[in-house]
Design goal:
alpha+beta; globular
């Protein structure tokens, strides 16, 4: 099992594959079976770390509203 920091690096690398204008959740950056293998506590921590990364680094990612289930949505800037 990967550490949360390794998972954060995977998520950062996958950002390059998201098209401009596309809205996504962190789980969209992982294959379904990979996401399901991550413990709930690690997914929550990963979400916090990813949000802090987006806020602290100059990226082409906008933070938008949360879903009804509380998941943070992001959008790649045009």
């Amino acid at each position: 099992m990967s550490t949360v920091n390794e998972l954060l690096e995977v998520a950062k690398n996958e950002l390059a594959k998201v098209k401009p204008g596309e809205i996504f959740l962190i789980r969209d950056l992982f294959k379904g079976y990979e996401w399901n293998r991550i413990s709930r506590s690690d997914r929550l921590l990963l979400g916090t770390l990813f949000l802090n990364f987006i806020r602290s680094v100059d990226t082409d990612v906008d933070i938008i509203e949360k879903t009804s289930s509380g998941q943070q949505k992001y959008k790649i800037k045009l």
